Amino acid sequence: MIKTRLSYLHRYYPPNYLLHKPLTGALIVGVFFLLFTVIYQPLEAHPSPSFTFLQTMALYAFCATLSVFISVHLVKRMGWLADEKKWTVLRELVAIALVLVGGGIFIYCFGFIMEPPMDRLNMMTFFNSVKVVFFLELLPFVFFTAINYGRFKRQQPDGDTKKKTGAVNADVELIEVASQLKKEEFQFLPDDFLYAEAEGNYVAFYLKNGDDIRKVMIRNSMTSIAQQLSPHAAFFRSHRAYIINLNKVQSRHGNALGYRLKIEGVHFEIPVSRSNIKSFDQQYAFCRC
């Protein structure tokens, strides 16, 4: 039981929006910080000797905004936390904790400007400042992490799938594709997927296998396969006959009439139809953020 629960810490988890979009996330935290402190006046919040209560809270909220923005950028520069494509439950928890602790230290230091320094120069004030900011800023992070929980659950393979596939890379989710035939299905890792192509009543999946490309045929319609892969932002139906992995796109060219894509390891160009150009641009930009 304990081993199973610990394994979930290494499952893929969609990155928290506040971490994925540092500027917008910092503004959200700052606004929440200001509204919460002004409305509820928690933990004996008091005005600075030089400012009114509202002005004091507004300055601290600005500091909270700045601290989150800086902390997120610093955290995302750490090697282990730099790649969102390998995001996991554990990385989510560690990143949020580091950002919140960094924010608490930042605001503690900012307090020396707002209040008499001698009143703050002790360990008790330091720990209280970090603790208060940690739990106050934690609420918006918890909210956005909870929003992603539904996607996280959908991406977990069930017990039967685990038995069929054996050991799976713990840092990423396993993707399962089902056929129209009840007993036909297969699983793959998202980074192995290059593209899928319609071939009559079948869909051919092309998967990276070391330096080679492996072809897997499954009986189903392209529409059904596209629906099954829709929870994964990097998989995009570029054309009625193709689904591609946006993370494998090496180059693109074309105009308003359509694009041609160069996919990693593929010797020909895959089309993006005219009707899909706008959606492609939006989703491709999102995956490259």
Helix-strand layout with pairing:
Elements: H1 2-8, H2 17-20, H3 22-40, H4 53-75, H5 89-114, H6 123-147, H7 149-154, H8 159-165, E1 175-178, E2 185-188, E3 193-199, E4 202-209, E5 212-219, H9 222-229, E6 235-239, E7 242-245, E8 249-255, E9 258-263, E10 269-272, H10 277-287
Antiparallel strand pairs: 1-2, 3-4, 3-7, 4-5, 6-7, 8-9, 9-10
Word description of this protein:
This protein is of the alpha+beta class. It has two domains: 2-152, no CATH class; 176-287, Beta Barrel (OB fold (Dihydrolipoamide Acetyltransferase, E2P)), CATH 2.40.50. Helices cover 47% and strands 20% of the residues. Helix 4 crosses helix 5 (89-114) and helix 5 crosses helix 6. The two termini are 37 Å apart.
Number of domains: 2
Helix share, percent: 40-55%
Mean pLDDT: 83
Reading side by side through the largest sheet, how are the strands ordered? 5-4-3-7-6
* Class derived from helix and strand content: alpha+beta
List keywords for this structure.
single chain; 289 residues; alpha+beta; OB fold (Dihydrolipoamide Acetyltransferase, E2P); 2 domains; 5-stranded antiparallel beta sheet; 3-stranded antiparallel beta sheet; 10 helices; 10 strands; 47% helix; elongated
In short:
By secondary structure, the protein is of the alpha+beta class.
